[in-house]
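Per reviewer request, we include the raw input and output of the structure prediction for the construct analysed in the revised manuscript.
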Amino acid sequence: MSKPDIRLPETVEECFALKVWADAQDDRPAPASPLQITKHLTFMAATLPSKSTDDESGKMRVAVYSKILGAYSNEALAYMARRACSEMQWFPTPRQCLELVRQYQPPVSEKVEALALCHRFWEGKFDDFIFELEQGIAQQEMIDAAPLNWRKIAMERGFLRWVPEGDRYMIRHKLVGATA
């Protein structure tokens, strides 16, 4: 499936195509590789003082930090390293690293943006539906074609009435004088 333009849909078909594309996207960030984790730890170690360690304890430190930070994306770890280097005086503990990395806010993904645009599209359609009911210009065909939840909301707002005999929602002003 080709990627559609990420913009506010103009038609129902465009909205459905955008939603289908968005639902097919996996926007979970990929975890950082062991090499990426090591690079961030090396960057912090070169910038921030820490107690001196021998080769073996240094390897153990990298292994512990890698295990703790292994689920986070490279971008989140870069954020953590930048914050640690700019705000801390000493090499951070694993707990401090976790505190920093958890504060990372990734940019909005195209999937989230596409789904938000679809939501805005349907909100606009719903607003148009309610506006036409408020103005008294709605046609029964439009009401019958509207999603059931829209008709229920319009009924709760007093624009429509449920008519059990016809098993449908009718414009309230057309029911004046009718028994139902």
